[in-house]
UniProtKB/TrEMBL annotation:
Ranges of biased composition (kind: Basic and acidic residues): 325-343
Organism superkingdom: Eukaryota
UniProt protein name: MAGUK p55 subfamily member 3 isoform X1
Gene giving rise to this polypeptide: MPP3
Organism this protein belongs to: Microcaecilia unicolor
Pfam families: Guanylate_kin (PF00625), L27 (PF02828), PDZ (PF00595), SH3_1 (PF00018)
Residue ranges constituting the PDZ domain according to the UniProt record: 137-218
Domain SH3: 226-296
GO cellular component: adherens junction; membrane
UniProt subcellular location: Cell junction, Adherens junction; Membrane
Amino acid sequence: MPVLSEEAGLHETLALLTSQLRPDSNHREEIGVLQDVFDEKSLNYLMKIHEKLFQYERHSPVPVLQSATALAEDVMEELQGTPLCSEEKELLQLLSTPHLKAILLVHDTVAQKNFDPVLPPLPDNYDDSFDEESVKIVRLVKNKEPLGATIRRDEHSGAVIVARIMCGGAADRSGLVHVGDELREVNGVAVLHKRPDEISQILAQSQGSITLKIIPAVKEEDHLQESKVHMRALFDFDPTEDRAIPCQEAGLPFRRGHVLEVVSQDDATWWQAKRIGDTNLRAGLIPSKEFQERRLAYRRTLGTLQNPRPTQTTLSGLRRSFRLSRKERQSNQNEPKTEHTDAPEFLTYEEVMRYQHQPGAQHRVVVLTGSLGARISELKRKVVMENPQQYGVAIPHTTRPRKSHERDGVEYHFVSKQSFEADGRSNNFLEQGEYKENLYGTSLQSIRSVMAKNKTCLVELQPDAVKQLRTPEFKPYVIFVKPQLHEKRRKPAVSPASVEITAALDEDQEMFNAAVFEQQYGHLIDTVLVREDLQSSCSQLKVILEMLRKDTFWVPVHWIKS
């Protein structure tokens, strides 16, 4: 067998091995397959690439020069001063492209091994009023992001003190600045007699490196202890409109429904948080739950806080399963325990965590709520009829006589007035009311019956009843169904769940009612479904129902940890 030289590469070795293969009667088929593999062009190309890379690495290549960018600029300058032929014009155009300039800049950075930011030299002199050991000189690379720290002035001494360090900001990442440190200079400018807003302006306008002269706190606090919790916001917050925030630039704006990761609650007034899904690593300031509740309480005493509960006039336009004679619920030990038995006095935050439906677990109850014009009963009935094995509806109770075509337990549970009133006193109904001297109600047991069959229960409820379902047992997913703007109006279909209410509202009133609903009960809504034609709305609803079986959702933490 021929002997290979030490310089022979993998490609040559493979070629020699192929030439030495001799088929025999016992391994003819296997050797044939091996030869076919070795003869593949793609394999040969890969071997050649491997050899080239190996040779390149073995010779330890070094850059020819370390100033390719400067050379390119010199060439461009020479070309711009003389008449150019077509090749020279093409070269000038090529050297002028931003992509090539970026490549040359990266080349020079690697060649010069200039990977660290250039910091100015340490100052030669210190303030004579301090011992050298008591002063700390800190240099931070800021770029375009905020420094990530807020300051305050001590009321007694007048010193400028670091009030908080924003998690993930430049100051936090450095580990050199701590809450309680006294700030004396910024880039050589004394700040002792400057206002905090003036100092913030200096910091905001500084780019690149910032040099801080700091007197450390008597006992430096440890790095911020992260106590991460997730909160769903139940109100809108715009830091540019909040006069109480210590630093507007450090504020984190959010909308109702956003999920926030609260990374620090060290400050009882202003928490630090990030919005879930944001790429920004720096946390921002948000009002704490206690502080926001105090502000709302103060606004209520001044009469400037909007009533969180709608009036009876606005409620009359919203979808209701039963008429206005709904009876007041009485406290009873059989009533399901819920964190929100009544509307929270002030809507601030709700602690949440991720939840995904597990095989074998009961399905979440799907609550459909909205106005009359959304025709929820029609939509609900169509979804169940198309897949009765997977979905079911809560059958209402009634005291009215059964009609000839009706079946007990199908359209309604037909019960006596005495039995109905007994269930009402035991708080077995989510909703109950009277219509044309007959009583109607949706019971908790009717929902449990659907869930026991391993089906997703679809139920149509008022907002107040939704709050009673917010328990670990039901884990309701609330869909607000509202009519499409400019949809042709028609009388709502007669259905058992709507108790044959057929009053139609004009479009303007319908849209007004929908807006009132979202404003007053938006914190209870998980998603909004715009009611178009029946088929498209049914398709939208089925997509949502399927997502509930597969996707992960944020739910109140007490639903999981109870």
